[in-house]
Amino acid sequence: MYAAEAGTLEEVLQRIAQVAKQVVHAKYAALGVPDGSGSLKYFKTEGMSEEQIHAIGHYPVGKGLLGLIMRERKALLVPEMQKHPRSMGFPANHPKMTSLLGVPIQTGAQLFGMLYLCDRMDGLPFDEQDQWWVEALAGYAALAIAGSQLSEQHQRLTLLEERERVGMELHDGIIQSLYAIGMQLQLMRLSNKITESGVADSIRNLDQVIEDIRGYILNLKTSTYQQKTIKACLQDIMARLYIPETLSVQIEAPDRQPPFSAPVFEAVCQITQEAVSNVVRHANATTLKIQTTQKESIFTLSVSDNGTGFNPEDASLHEGLGLRNIQQRARIHGGKITVQTTPQDGTTVTLKIPLA
After folding, report:
1. Which CATH architecture fits 7-155?
2. What pLDDT does residue 2 have?
3. Is pLDDT above 80 for 26?
4. Given CB 3.0 to 4.6 Å as the disulfide criterion, which of 9, 242, 318, 346 pairs with 183?
5. What pLDDT is attached to residue 304?
6. Contact 262, 225 (CB under 8 A)
């Protein structure tokens, strides 16, 4: 039996088989969809009971007369199937069938499936008028199947994009927050200064991380970006990350609402968090400056430090520092990331994003 891999598409196929059976008053109808390798991916039947289908044990695999229509893509009228030279007979427990009307479902060179009708209710063989009706139905069926397949492809693409979004959120947001909490706890342990207030802060931060995970998965996180100013969001990022006492942070940003939608501003904040986290973890810097400007319909964010820098040609660093991730996040919203860095001479990560 064929698995229900695509419920909506299979419902469409089943309905087309039902209509074809009714149009020419046939006892049996079936619709097969090729799998691209000479066999059938789907095979929907009308007129046979579940008990009959179960007794046969398997659906056709695209051989004999059924395969002939699939390969030659031409309508086929056969008064007596058993006498046709390409007939391969029926398997055990198959209902007796005599006449066949087969029509390809196609548009241009694209074959979407095949309609098979067997035995008219009045006992007469199928005629040219029956063929005309079924070919007309096949034209509409091709459009219906194509639309259903496009819808399913869109759903799969949307699912992949959603998985990618959640993955980026987890990397850019959750992992950095957990890292900051871990660093805070580690410093308390090493300094033997484990205080109730310090533990309470860590617990509160962990609770916030749990809320963030829920928000990212349910795609609710963007609502918070509609309520805060640019400066407030950047300050919130600093509060969420562990900033060592040896690092002086300067924020130059307006205390007003962002000039774009919440999803775009969320991306800006996530890019900022990733860039700042890289400075804290890898740069050994003593100064960090975050600056935003808006000029000629371009919003610019820069994160600069006076740390050790790195070799921009080192591909492994791009992966370890999450640079590919922030570059991809910027591209999604039409922006661009540039990185200026020199070993022992600091780094500047700049985001430029157009305003709608």
Report:
1. 2-Layer Sandwich (3.30)
2. 36
3. yes
4. 242
5. 95
6. yes
